[in-house]
Amino acid sequence: DQQVKQNSPSLSVQEGRISILNCDYTNSMFDYFLWYKKYPAEGPTFLISISSIKDKNEDGRFTVFLNKSAKHLSLHIVPSQPGDSAVYFCAAIANDYKLSFGAGTTVTVRA
Amino acid sequence: SAVISQKPSRDICQRGTSLTIQCQVDSQVTMMFWYRQQPGQSLTLIATANQGSEATYESGFVIDKFPISRPNLTFSTLTVSNMSPEDSSIYLCSVVDGSGANVLTFGAGSRLTVL
Asked: Would you tell me which of A44, A93, B5, B115 could form a disulfide with B24, CB atoms 3.0–4.6 Å apart?
């Protein structure tokens, strides 16, 4: 049973515009959420996270928003750059270090 | 953050054989995990590699199929036994990154293709 869902398998955006990636979860015990970025032939690298006690966390061009009542989070990348082209995974944790991952969204930034 | 080296980076294996994947970390870590990413799917936790004791497996994964060793705090191996084409996946080692709570650092992965 997939507890973390990324319903958009791909996203194409023009350079300089905003990329918005969405993630939904079903387990109300999740209390920490992370976004990972993955390039081909590399392992996922940590991008940004948010605790369930917050509704927003910002780090440079990356902002994560959490809506607990809707069990929804999103990642905003502004402005999008060609180097942002990668697969983005949403992940969640409930009281331990065991991450539950979404299926990933492939982002392509067009020049 | 910790640096993780995995070997092999990729391999092509014959059905019925076994392959051992190695994970080496540049620092001592308490918690180490093995994940699998099947083609087009998300990362799934196989097991937690415990130093000095048997690994803890997630539902759907068993020790006979995926034996794991963790002889010390910097090294672990995962063996994929009696492989079938369904085992074709990327296998990733990960550790808890001491620089940030709840953050896992991943190795580059081992891409296995079973013919």
From this structure: B5
Per-residue pLDDT tens for B51-94? 888 899 999 999 999 999 999 999 999 999 999 999 999 999 99
Residues of B in contact with A91 (CB under 8 A): 43
Taking one residue from A and the other from B, the number of pairs with CB-CB distance under 8 angstroms is: 56
Q: Tell how far CA A62 is from the center of its chain.
A: 10
Which amino acid, one-letter code, is at A110?
A: R
Of B45, B48, B103, the CB nearest to A49: B103
Q: Which of B26, B48, B29 is CA-nearest to residue B97?
A: B29
**B43 → closest Cβ in A45, A46, A89:** A89
What is residue B110's three-state secondary structure? strand
What residue type is assigned to position A71 of the chain? K
- Report the distance separating Cα A106 and Cα A10, nearest Å: 4
